[in-house]
Structures are given as C-alpha cells and as structure tokens.
Specification:
- There is one protein chain.
- By secondary structure, the chain is of the alpha+beta class.
- The chain is 16% helix and 55% strand.
- Strands 1, 2, 3, 4, 5, 6, 7 and 8 form an 8-stranded antiparallel sheet that branches.
C-alpha cells in the first residue's frame, strides 16, 4: 500500500511540473528594500523574448520563518519588466511565488529564491 501511495505522489508531482511553462525565465532585476515599503522589479521572458501580457502576482515568504506572506500585483512597466510594491519585515532568504497568466504563454506558476 505504501508503494502505491508513493507512486501516486510521484505521478501527481510529475503532472504538476508538466503544467508549468518550462521555457519561461523569471528573475528579480531590482530587489525590494527590507523594513520599508519599496519597489520590486521582476523580469519575465520566454527563450529570451520579453513577455508583455502577463497578469499576476508575486507572493513573498521568508524561508524558515513565520512572518506570513506579502502579496503584490505585478504591473507591466516595459518590455518584460513587471513592478510591485512590498513591505518585507526583515532581510534574509525569501521565496517568491510568481503566479498568473499570459495570452501567449498560458499559465505561469514559478518560484524563485533570493537573499535580501
């Protein structure tokens, strides 16, 4: 029975991984300043081409700490760059979940980890 559960779990994880858009690259080009309301810039590209029609959010969570999360709507500013405002309580290691949709790329759901 445990082998069946493990196999089922692996299958679900593979299915979820296949649902993401593997060619999309997400990078933070301007990190926010911790302990104050500040701007974050995130670049979203597909094989080097700017994605200009993404609509979504970035959710910040501190790694190994329970500070809750900070969510910001990402607004397109220029070719492939998206801006949001966040107020992070302290410097440290953060994960950022970028979730949304693009007419050309479909659903985008990716996580990056940064040190601030």
């Amino acid at each position: 029975m445990n082998k069946l559960r493990a196999l089922l779990l692996v299958g679900i994880m593979m299915l979820l991984a296949a649902c993401g858009n593997a060619s999309v690259d997400v990078e933070m080009t301007k990190p926010p300043e911790p302990e104050t309301m500040s701007t974050v810039l995130i670049s979203i590209t597909d094989d080097g081409e700017a994605i200009t029609d993404f609509e979504g959010t970035a959710e910040f969570r501190m790694v190994d700490m329970d500070h809750g999360s900070e969510i910001t709507d990402l607004m397109h500013t220029e070719e492939g760059l998206y801006e949001g405002e966040v107020n992070l309580p302290m410097p440290g290691k953060w994960t950022i979940d970028i979730v949304g949709d693009s007419d050309n790329e479909g659903s985008i759901d990716t996580t990056i980890e940064v040190e601030l």
